[in-house]
Amino acid sequence: MDHGAMSDAMGKADEESGVSGARDPHAYSDGYTFDSLTRPVEADEMNFGMLLVDRFESVRTSGNTSLTYDLQGWYGRDYNRLVLKAEGDIDAGELEEARTELLWGHAIAPFWDTQLGVRQDSGVTPDRNWLAFGIQGLAPYWFELDVAGYVGDEGRTALRLDGEYDLLLAQRLILQPSLEADFYGKRDAERALGSGLSDLTAGVRLRYEIRREFAPYVGIEWASKFGGTADYARAAGLDTKETRAVAGVRFWF
C-alpha cells in the first residue's frame, strides 16, 4: 500500500472540504463516482408488507361453537409503516364482537414500535370509537408484548395487555402460551362493561408448521369476567368463567 499517496489524497480532501480530518469519499475509486450512475436503493428505502392471520379458529364451549379471527397486517418501511389490527368473534353467522385498529407504527428501538391511530369496536352492541396509542415489540427472553391505551367519547378510557411466547419443542412443533387482559376506566352499560379489570383470557396452543407460512393448531383457553362486567353477564344468564377448546390455522404471507 502506498501510504504516501493515501496521505496526499486525505490532505487534498481536507483542503477541498475545509474540515480537518475529513475523508474524501472518492479517494480510492480511481476517479469513478456515482455521478453517471443511478444511486442504488437501500433496504430501508423500500416498502414491504405482510399479513399475519395469527388465529383463525373454531371455539368450542359447553353447548356452543363459534368462530374467532385475530390478524395483523402492515405496509411500509423499517421506521414508519401503516398497521392494521383486527380481532372478532362470529357466532351463528353473526358478528358478535369485533375490534379493528388502523395505526401508524414508528420504530423507536430494535424490535420495538410505538403505534398511534384509531380503534373501532363493533358487533351486536353499539359501536365505540377510540383514539389509540401503544407500544408493541419483542421483550427480553423473546416475549411478544402489545400494550395499548385508548381514549373514547364521553370520557371513556381503556387499557389492553396482550402477550405471548413461542416455545420451540422441535423445529416445526411450537407451544404458544398467551395472556390477554382488558381494563376500562368507566362503566358502559350498553356494551355490558364494568370499570376496572373487565376480562382475562389465558390460553395455550400447540401448532405444527407444515411450512413456516402455514400451521394448523389445537389448544385450550380459560376466560373469566370480573367486576361489573361479570355482574352484567350474570344478569343476562351467562357464565362468568368458561373453558374453551380451540382448533384453527395460522398463516402469513
TrEMBL record:
GO terms for biological process: intracellular copper ion homeostasis. Residues 1-25 are annotated as: Disordered. Pfam families: CopB. It comes from the Bacteria. One of its GO terms (molecular function) is copper ion binding. Residues 1-15 have a biased composition (Basic and acidic residues). InterPro entries: Cu-R_B_prcur. GO terms for cellular component: cell outer membrane. This is Copper resistance protein CopB. The lineage of its organism: Bacteria, Pseudomonadati, Pseudomonadota, Gammaproteobacteria, Candidatus Tenderiales.
